Amino acid sequence: MSKFIASAALVSVLASAPAAFALQPSAIPETGKVTKAPVGSTVTIESTGKFGNRYQNYFRVAEDGELEFVFQDSGN
């Protein structure tokens, strides 16, 4: 029975490993519309997550001026 518990614990640790590299939603700022950036261009917004980590968030300008989230870089 202890082998089963140990293997279940190992599987749960390995399954949660990709979560360490997942997006940090708290670091993605609320965005509005932009008026001076051309449609299709990329906008970079630096932000800080809830644990003080700095992130660079990349957005693409849509036809209506909304910023669409593209990528997040932790800079590590």
From TrEMBL:
Superkingdom of this protein's organism: Bacteria
This protein's UniProt keywords: Signal
Signal peptide from the UniProt entry: 1-22
Name of this chain's protein: Uncharacterized protein
Organism listed in the record: Martelella radicis
